[in-house]
Amino acid sequence: MSEPGLNGLKRFSGYHLLIMKISPNLRLDKSLKSNKSRFRQMPYDSTKVNINSGGLAKNTFDAIVVGSGISGGWAAKELCEHGLKTLVLERGRDVVHLKDYPTATMNPWDFPHRGQMPDKFVKDNPLITEAAGFDESTQHFFIKDKDHPYVQEKPFEWIRGYQVGGKSLIWGRACPRWSKYEFINPAKFGYGIEWPISYDDIAPWYSHVETFAGICGNKDGLEAMPDGEYLPPFDFNCPEKDMRDKLLSKYKDRFMIQGRWAQLSEARDIHLKQGRGRCQARDLCMRGCPFGGYFSSNSSTLPWAAKTGNLTIRPFSVVHSIIYDEQKGKAVGVRIIDTNTKQSTDYFARIIFMNASAMNTNLVLLNSKSKRFPNGFGNDNGLLGKYVCFQNYRGSVGGDIEGYEDKYFYGRRTAECMMANYRNIHKNDMDFVGGYMAFMGCYRTRGTGDKMEIQIGADYKDAMSEAGHWGMYMYMQGETVPKESNHVALSENEKDQWGIPLLKMNVGYDDNDEKLLKDFLTQGSEMLDACGVKNINQHDNHWAPGRDIHEMGGCRMGKDPKTSLLNGWNQFHNCKNVFVTDGACMTSTANQSPSIFYMALTARATNYAVEELKKGNL
Ligand SMILES: Cc1cc2nc3c(=O)[nH]c(=O)nc-3n(C[C@H](O)[C@H](O)[C@H](O)COP(=O)(O)OP(=O)(O)OC[C@H]3O[C@@H](n4cnc5c(N)ncnc54)[C@H](O)[C@@H]3O)c2cc1C
Ligand code: SF4
Fold first, then answer.
1. Cβ atoms within 10 A of the Cβ of 219, count?
2. Ligand 2 atom nearest 294 alpha carbon
């Protein structure tokens, strides 16, 4: 497989500049021998624009993108392709595709603890070790708890990946589209404000990002989960095909489909040009994929942006705040703190994209205080940090399937089946609002009976070579209601190691979430029963918000500046050259996985910003 096009990518760490293979179009700043010589400690005066003396020209770009994860990668790609000199500021370390995937090809027996983390580590990191997919093989892509504290006024399990690529390295890759109903129903059924855009506005941008990122799936023709530009789907296993048919014969609105995943089931020309190859179905994705088989910023958008020669990435740079110029009446740049040297530096640009992930974007905006915005950036209506929402992952059902003992499947599959939402689509006829989708599948275990309980030695090995039982499972992904009371704010007296106030989380479930959960558990059990599943069990994991890893809101889009912060182009109503296109912008959560939507919103907003720049409007 060819190495992806990192040529031209300029990255610099807190202490030294790392130049990847230098290409003719590399935009190399020759003064950057050492960051130490560049950064001066700047006193922060929120009423003045601090100019980094002598650094204005060299610290000035056309565009600044805060964060290099899923949405930031897309902002960088689109802006660079349009010829804008773009600075991506990333608080974490650099992660270079292929080079920095140390565990990608390791076998279970190569790990000192066979994949488990030692007890002491788990004790020291109770939050992050609970994250989905966290283990010895992926731990280097997650934060350590004590390095990044926050305040839980209510329990909130904030899962983070601070590095170039952000959580794009460790995400689950589910990519269903929203339907038109998710844009309409919150306002129609009275549990949210009106979205300023419709499905038709975003549909072409879904196509744009799906084609480039590479999403596999089937065209199923479902109203509640519209089709996109898909690569071939992974296949059902034998019981899954039967369960799909049994469900359809009983319910006319319950469709068990092959999931839509950011996985190259086929590598098309556009993917080969990115240096990516076909997914080998190893199902070890969260370690970083040596084939570029799944979409991440590191394998896809960032190298693509770098090839233009317009990209500069600065890792180890935590953005402290946005700098607002009172005279110009707009933002002129951002202040960063180098996470190694703790020195602060200002960077300047004509447009700023906030892509630090939902809660971190809230933090930076709340911390961006000026004479014009004394309560946080753009916060004229006092709603910044409010209407935080998430997705409800609490419920699952499962049981045993009989009658397939002579059936096997071979190899691994890195995709699950999905079921589109079937609740409250055309009318609100439940005792709760919103809907839920489900992930589901049938699996076969290895090993049978008592021998498996021995768990060691020859008997265990013998048991492992025997086929075990078949099971079926479903788990939910539910919409939650954006509420003013679910909010985040800055701590008045606690700061992190870089002097930035800690974020206080005040986010919880409500009665609607409990009813929605109950409905899923009841319906899920009924559906499994209809499939002939035995020994059905229901489970409420009681996870705190945050562990669902789909946090959203706090800086929502809307038509009315009195009730929202961003307009239909993700632009602040009251400061047009700052855009927020990560989860913070969400007006409501929908039930579908959100990241492909953030990608589409980002691509749409960046292209709009470029047009506005050309017209001289920004
Ligand atoms: C285990 C797991 C599974 C998931 N599965 C799915 C899935 O199947 N489907 C789906 O749609 N979503 C999934 N998600 C969620 C998905 O990862 C996020 O929605 C997505 O990454 C958000 O993109 P982002 O660009 O907003 O944030 P991120 O990808 O987190 O990127 C934000 C970046 O900003 C950086 N940053 C933060 N603060 C600052 C600052 N102050 N200054 C500079 N840089 C900063 C961070 O270090 C990070 O690199 C999953 C997440 C996890 C953890
Ligand atoms: S399953 Fe596919 S995408 Fe995941 S690590 Fe293997 S080859 Fe890469």
1. 12
2. 3
Cα dihedral 578→582→587→588 (10° resolution)? 180
> What's the rounded Cα separation, in Å, for the pair 403 and 326?
72
Give how far Cα 328 sits from Cα of 194, 323, 324, Å: 31, 11, 8
* Gap between the Cα atoms of 485 and 493, Å rounded: 22
3-state secondary structure 508-526: CCCHHHHHHHHHHHHHHHH
Q: Which atom of ligand 2 is nearest to the CA of 414?
A: 1
- Taking the alpha carbons at both ends of the chain, their separation in whole angstroms is 42
Cα(288) to centroid(ligand 2), Å = 8
* Mode of pairing for the β-strands spanning 63-66 and 86-89: parallel
Residue 150 token pair? 């926050």
How far is C-alpha 112 from the chain's CA centre?
Answer: 30
- What DSSP designation does 298 have? I
Alpha-carbon distance of 282 to 573, in angstroms, equals 46
pLDDT at 266 over 70: yes
How would DSSP label each residue in 202-223? HHHHHHHHHHHHTEE------S
Kindly state the tokens that stand for 51: 């100019």
* Ligand 1 atom, smallest distance to 132 CA: 1
Q: Work out the pLDDT band at 547, boundaries 50, 70, 90.
A: very high
Tell which residue, 342, 292, 290, 381, has the closest CA to residue 498: 342
Burial of residue 533 (number of CB atoms within 10 Å: 0-12, 13-18, 19+): buried
| Higher pLDDT among residues 5 and 461, named by residue | 461
Contact 230, 260 (CB under 8 A): yes
Q: What is the pTM of this model?
A: 0.91
Q: How many CB atoms lie within 10 A of CB 31?
A: 11
Q: Say how many Å lie between the CA of residue 279 and the centre of ligand 2.
A: 5
Residues across the chain: 618
> What is the C-alpha separation between 67 and 88, in angstroms, rounded?
7
Amino acid letter for position 299? S
Q: At what angle do helices 511-530 and 238-250 cross, to 10 degrees?
A: 110
Q: H helices within 125-225, ranges in order?
A: 180-188, 199-213
Task: State CA 272 to chain mean position distance.
Answer: 24
Q: How many CB atoms lie within 10 A of CB 148?
A: 18
Is the distance from CB of 606 to CB of 74 less than 8 angstroms? yes
At 243, which amino acid appears? Answer: M
Q: What whole-number distance in Å separates Cα of residue 555 and Cα of residue 564?
A: 7
pLDDT of 42 > 60? The answer is: no
Angstrom distance (rounded) from CA 422 to CA 425: 7
Residue with tokens 């990847």: 20
409-456: per-residue pLDDT in tens?
Answer: 777 788 899 999 999 999 999 999 999 999 999 999 887 655 556 567
Calculate how far, in angstroms, residue 184's C-alpha sits from the geometric centre of ligand 2: 36
Residue with the smallest CA separation from ligand 2 atom 5 is 285
| Single-letter amino acid, residue 89 | L
Q: What is the pLDDT of residues 307-356, one digit of tens each?
A: 999 999 999 999 999 999 999 999 999 999 999 999 999 999 999 999 99
- Compute the distance from residue 412 Cα to the ligand 2 centre, in Å: 10
What secondary structure letter does DSSP report for 565?
Answer: S
- Secondary structure letter of residue 193 according to DSSP: P
- Residue in the block written with tokens 């096009």: 5
Neighbouring C-beta atoms of residue 460, cutoff 10 Å:
14
* d(C-alpha 569, C-alpha 351), whole Å: 13
